[in-house]
Design brief:
A hairpin with a 5-residue loop joins strand 1 and strand 2. The strands form two sheets. Strands 7-6-5-8-9-11-10 form a seven-stranded mixed beta sheet, with helices on both faces. A four-stranded mixed beta sheet has the order 2-1-3-4. The chain has two domains: about 100 residues, no CATH class; about 280 residues, Vaccinia Virus protein VP39 (Rossmann fold), CATH 3.40.50.150. The chain is built from 17 helices and eleven strands. Helix 3 crosses helix 17. The chain is globular. It starts with about 25 loop residues before the first helix and ends with a strand. By secondary structure, the chain is α/β, with parallel strands linked by helices.
Amino acid sequence: MTKTRAVPLPSKGIWPGLATVPRSPLRAVAAERLFHHAVRTIPVRVEFPDGRVLGAGGPDAPVMRLHRPGHFFQRLGADAKIGFGEAYMVGDWSSPEVADVLTPFAARMATLVPRPLQALRRIAERTQPSVEDNDLAGARENIHRHYDLSNDLFSVFLDETMTYSSAWFADPEQDLMDAQLRKIDGVLDFAGVGPDTHVLEIGTGWGALAIRAAQRGARVTTLTLSAEQKAMAEQRIQAAGVADRVQVMLRDYREAHGSYDAVVSVEMIEAVGKGYWPTYFATLDRLVRPGGRIGLQAITMPHDRMLATANAYTWMHKYVFPGGLIPSVEAIEDAVAQHTGLRVVQDRAFGQDYALTLRTWRRRFLGRWQEVAALGFDETFRRMWEFYLAYSEAGFRAGYLDVHQFCLAK
């Protein structure tokens, strides 16, 4: 028999409404039946407080422990795309290894809801709110909500380069920092960045790519919407001794001007929003000189799943990345073909490297939780961040998500 874990109730001031269990008995019953139907063929063990076990997994399968089944199914019934994650945040369920549980679910994402009911799901599910649209004002607010949490928070689990995107490992034992530098060199090589190159970077992060490009002898203009990131990036650029070759600007990509030998953008397109993809790629085309190249790194998902979920409002939108949408390779290729004079000339994928990157981040985050707590973050935040990293890792492990580097030529 499983016991309810002592998880503190979410603060009403920080997490409004999260502690309140939604009440929709009919939807809860429907959610319970769908959940039972789904886990029949999934290699997991779902353990109930009364000793019942569901799932197709054997004794060594990943374990999902339902501590408060009634609350879990109420949340799932109210909004499955959000309720599953919220139930973890409040302690309605737990697992000794969350990513192991989520991976087989991710592998069956397209079939968890029976096909006859999928049309009804699209009618019932929430859509992304208009306030999270990525116009000029909305994009700044969406970026602020995630990237301005705390530079100190990110420094707890990122490597020394402060790189918050997938590493590219030469082998699974390679040090994370070396794998991140390999990734950066890969995208810089795609963009043809070398001595005397004038580079535009869209999405500064904490300055690692700009520093690496400047160390190659390039001159770099880099854009960010995060004031926190800009301040730390400038400190790191100064410390690296390349401040004379790098300019950090608090500016939206749509406000960029000039002409550049190369443009680079690493995992920024996911925050652009589908409605702005034509503008994004047209802007890249406008800013790169004839003969120039663009290095683009993007998380991707299958095209049919992108179309099916393009307007859905999910747990990830609500708690981590508001306004975002992961594109498919087809969507990127179509946008490039229809809205630019560019062409994709090289493409490499390394999704399992992202799974390893996320696993490393998650273990560092949990292993150094006391340092995070000292920054003022509570237990609900810990569970939210753990779920976010594990959920993302599961997507890459299952192949539902991938990450690509593209070389675009003009």
